[in-house]
Design a protein that fits this description.
The complex is a heterodimer of chains A (105) and B (309).
Chain A: E1 2-5, E2 8-11, E3 21-27, E4 36-41, E5 45-52, E6 57-65, E7 79-82, E8 88-92, E9 97-102
Antiparallel strand pairs in A: 1-2, 3-4, 4-5, 5-6, 7-8, 8-9
Chain B: E1 5-8, E2 13-19, E3 27-33, E4 39-47, E5 52-60, E6 69-72, E7 80-83, E8 87-97, E9 103-113, E10 119-124, E11 131-136, E12 140-148, E13 154-164, E14 170-175, E15 178-182, E16 188-193, E17 204-210, E18 216-223, E19 231-237, E20 244-249, E21 265-271, E22 282-287, E23 291-297, E24 300-303
Antiparallel strand pairs in B: 2-3, 3-4, 4-5, 6-7, 7-8, 8-9, 10-11, 11-12, 12-13, 14-15, 15-16, 16-17, 18-19, 19-20, 21-22, 22-23, 23-24
Classes of the chains: A mainly beta (105), B mainly beta (309).
C-alpha cells in the first residue's frame, strides 16, 4: 500500500495475501469514513479489507469463499463489480451466471 | 456475509459487464456476442430477491464488431461508453416530453471514430464523468472527452492522444493529474499529466518507476572474473515494446547522501571521545604529507587545530 506524497509513491505498509488476486475494487460503505477494499482471488476466495490508520494495519471486515460445485470458469476472466451506489457486489466467476451479494458490510 | 446469489444470464458470450451509475435500482450493462458473432449491449435490473434479472431501461443491438470494453459514465451524465477497435460510442436513454404531454424514452447515441487499436483499460479523471483516459495494447494513452449541453446530454465525443507509457494492465487515477500505470510487461510508472504538450507532443511526465523484471523468458549467468567474484544474471525481461535485457547482481544498495572531492586522501578513520559515546566525533583524514582531523560540533564539521603529536 502506497501513499502519494510530494509527487512520489511512498510505501506505507505491506501485507502478504495467500492467492492470486483477480480483482480489486474499492467502495465506500454508507456510514464509513474510509473506503473498503473488495479482493477476489483465482480460487474464488474473497475478503473485504479496511485500513486502520492509527495502527497502520489492514482490518478484515469479511472473508469467505464463493466457489460453486459446478460451473465453467468464465472466459473473459474472473472479476468483481461494485454497484456505484453500493447496494450490491457482483462477481463474474462462471459462464452464464452473475453472482451477486447485497452488501451489508 | 450473507449468501451470495447466482443470477442466470441468457447471453452466450459475455464480453464485458459493468454496473451503471445513477440508477434507481441496481442495473448492469452487458456487452455480449451472439451465436452469429455480432455484438450487442443490453441493460438488466438485478433482482436479488427473485434471484433473477429483468430487462433494463434500454438495449442496443449491433454495436461495433470489435466492441470490447464498457465504461459506465458517472452521474450526472450517466449512460455508458462502448469502446471498440475503431470507434467509441456513447449510449444512454433519456426521457422527452412529447407534444401530447406524455413522457417517452429516447435513445441518445454519439460516436467518434478512432485509429484502429485495442483499448484495454480506462480511468475516469473528471468527477462529473466527462473525461476518461484510455490505454491500449501499445501503451498509447489517450483521453476521451464527452461534450455536453446544460442538461448534461452528450453532444459529441472528442479524442486526443496524450503520449506513451508502459503497456498498461491497470490505470489508477490518483487525482491532481497523477496517474499510476500498473504494467506486467514493463515497469510500472507514476506519471503526471500536463495540460500542455511538451516538445515531443506528449502530455506525460514520468515521475517514478517501479522496476519490473518479469516476465522472464530466458536468462543466463555471467561470470565477470574467473575468481567467481561478481556473478551477474542477464535476463530477457518484459514483452512487446517494453521488452528489455536486464542485468541483475547481488549487492548492498547504497543511498548517496552527499559527495565531496578530497584530492590525495590515503586513509579515513572515525573516532569517538569515549568508548560508550553513541556517535563518533572525529574524522581523521590521512594525506601523503599531512594528517587532518575534522570534528563534529553542533551538527557542523570543522577542522580541529590541536597539538596531538
Amino acid at each position: 500500500m502506497y501513499a502519494v506524497r510530494n509527487g512520489n509513491l511512498e510505501l506505507v505498509m505491506e501485507s502478504p495475501l495467500f492467492g492470486k488476486i483477480k480483482s480489486l475494487e474499492y467502495y465506500r460503505p454508507s456510514a464509513a469514513v474510509t473506503d473498503s477494499l473488495f479482493v477476489l482471488t483465482d480460487r474464488k476466495s474473497f475478503c473485504v479489507l479496511g485500513y486502520d490508520g492509527q495502527k497502520n494495519k489492514l482490518v478484515t471486515r469479511a472473508v469467505g469463499n464463493v466457489r460453486d460445485r459446478a460451473g465453467r470458469d468464465i472466459e473473459i476472466g474472473q472479476r468483481g463489480l461494485i454497484d456505484p451506489d453500493f447496494r450490491m457486489i457482483g462477481m463474474m466467476l462462471y459462464e452464464g451466471h452473475l453472482k451477486v451479494h447485497e452488501k451489508h458490510i | 456475509m450473507k449468501e451470495a446469489v447466482n443470477i442466470a444470464l441468457e447471453e452466450t458470450r459475455v464480453i464485458d459487464i459493468k454496473f451503471l451509475h445513477a440508477c434507481a435500482r441496481p442495473t448492469v450493462c452487458v456487452l455480449y456476442q451472439d451465436n452469429r458473432g455480432l455484438r450487442h449491449v443490453k441493460t438488466l435490473h438485478v433482482e436479488v430477491r427473485e434471484k433473477d434479472s429483468s430487462p433494463g431501461p434500454w438495449s442496443q443491438s449491433n454495436v461495433e464488431y470489435g466492441a470490447s470494453l464498457l465504461i459506465p459514465v458517472p452521474a450526472p451524465i450517466g449512460g455508458v461508453l462502448v469502446v471498440g477497435a475503431s470507434s467509441i460510442t456513447y449510449i444512454n436513454q433519456s426521457t422527452t416530453i412529447l407534444p401530447t404531454g406524455e413522457a417517452a424514452p429516447q435513445m441518445q447515441i454519439q460516436a467518434v471514430e478512432i485509429a484502429p487499436t485495442l483499448i484495454s483499460n480506462f480511468a475516469c479523471i473528471a468527477e462529473d464523468g466527462s473525461r476518461f483516459l484510455l490505454a491500449d495494447h501499445r501503451g498509447v494513452l489517450s483521453v476521451v472527452v464527452l461534450r455536453t449541453n446544460t442538461n448534461k446530454e452528450v453532444l459529441s465525443l472528442v479524442i486526443d492522444t496524450l503520449g506513451t507509457t508502459s503497456i498498461a494492465e491497470n490505470l489508477t487515477y490518483l487525482g491532481d493529474g497523477l496517474l499510476y500505470v500498473g504494467s506486467i510487461f514493463g515497469d510500472s510508472q507514476l506519471i503526471r499529466l500536463h495540460s500542455q504538450k511538451d516538445a515531443d507532443g506528449s502530455n506525460i511526465e514520468v515521475l517514478a518507476v517501479h522496476p519490473n523484471i518479469g516476465p522472464i523468458r530466458d536468462m543466463c549467468l555471467v561470470d565477470n572474473d574467473k575468481q567467481g567474484g561478481q556473478r551477474q544474471l542477464v535476463t530477457c525481461s518484459g514483452a512487446y515494446k517494453d521488452g528489455s535485457l536486464r542485468v541483475i547482481r547481488s549487492g548492498i544498495g547504497l543511498q548517496e547522501q552527499a559527495s565531496l572531492e578530497v584530492g590525495g586522501i590515503k586513509g579515513l578513520w572515525s573516532l569517538r571521545t569515549h568508548e560508550r559515546d553513541a556517535f563518533d566525533k572525529y574524522l581523521v583524514q590521512s594525506f601523503l604529507g599531512e594528517t587532518r582531523i575534522l570534528a563534529i560540533e553542533n551538527e557542523e564539521m570543522g577542522e580541529v587545530k590541536k597539538d596531538f603529536f
